[in-house]
Amino acid sequence: MSSTTQPAVTEDPASQRQPPETPRRRERRFPVKRLVFGLVLVCAIGGASWYASKYGATAYRTIVSGKEIEIPTVRVQRGDVSLAVTANGEIRGGDPEVMTAPQTGGGDLHITMLADSGQPVKEGDVVVQFDTTEQEYKLREAEADLAEAEQHIVQATAQQSADEEEDHYALLKARSDVKTAELEARKNPLLPAITARQNELALTNARDHLTQLESNLANRKAGNQAAIAIQQAGKSKAEAEATTARENIQAMTLKSKRAGYVALRQNTNVGILYYGATVPVFQVGDAARPGMAIADILDLRNWELGANVGELDRGHLSLGQKVDVSVVAAPGRPFAGHVKELGATTGPPWDRHFECKIGLDNPTAELRPGMSATIVVTTDEMHNVLWLPAQALFESDGKTFVYVQNGKSFATKDVTLVRRNETRVVITGIDEGQMVALANPAEMTQKKSGAAGSVPSLTK
Questions:
Q1: Distance (Å) of CA 277 to CA 53, 269, 274, 280, 350
Q2: What are the angstrom distances between the C-alpha of 236 and each of 148, 242, 352?
Q3: Is 429 part of any domain?
Q4: Taking a C-beta distance cutoff of 8 angstroms, is the pair 128, 295 a contact?
Q5: Which residues are paired to 99 by β-bridges?
Q6: pLDDT value for 183
Q7: Is pLDDT larger for residue 420 or for residue 116?
Q8: How many structural domains are present in the chain?
Q9: Structural domain that includes position 35
């Protein structure tokens, strides 16, 4: 019987000391690894954030270091300068005829007919018509009161005539009774005392009755005349009311007194508008207060142009100055004018302006109200002077200065302002040909500092 020899197995002492790894032990070891990995990741993110906050801007400037801020500049020039005031305006008729809502003594008036803005009209044409319903009702009422008053006058007059006839008869009878009593009283010496006394009493009574009757007749006549006067007053009142109603009805139809163009006014009676809304012009159905201006009839024989001019140029304009006018709708056709009127300065502090009215000296048939136009008023001619665009001159603390370019930097230089307008300034205190900035370099640097690597320096 053969025997099989098996190799001897030598066991590791460590394996004899530790039990084999089980799934439960593996699950207990994984949370520790995850915790360590999380701590390392948080530290890495924190370090990256700190580095970016400290060196990110420097790194960005390094990347864009090739980009420079471009400051617009201009060269100081010497030459002849024509200082002119330029503004935009609108053509309109001069000396307008204002059409206002009539003073009817009532409330708002409602528009039932209205000509279009810009519509040509002739003398006598209807421009505005208001609702006359209320006035027509008042007219019918007044006419009815007038007819009633006239009938009352007729009745009172007839009654007065009848009373006068009756009173005349009563007066004749009373006088006759007095005469009869006087004749009877003459017989008293021949009559008994009692009869004579009766005749005296009858005469006294007849005379008293005549006196009382004459007094009553005078009062009655005065009363009748007063009654007729009252009716006459009622008639006069009704006539006045009827006349007023007719005049109101007539006044509620506004007709043009001359040929021209219609320019509707803005309806300021519309109530509260939201911010920035444009006030609309009047239209059919709108209500207008008595005395409100509804429309203008522009006189075509006196064309004018209204333009808003900046407050800075007010001192350079005067009445009668010649004006060159260019109408957008009539290109290539020059118009001449003159300063007709200078209005009051209005507007917010950052946009102060005033209205300048220009009278046109050579209007033509193709002009229409509302056309846009440009005015140029040459205020002065200066020769061999230094000048710059107006935006190149700066002011601060009562001083005027420019930013002179010196390589890549700019320095402020005080100059003296001689004349200026909206576009140009005439100065002294600087050399011809020097380059100056058209904008404040410091402000442009602040606005674009995030994208600028090479920033021009600013010195004083």
A1: 49, 14, 6, 9, 21
A2: 12, 10, 58
A3: yes
A4: yes
A5: 295
A6: 87
A7: 116
A8: 3
A9: 28-63
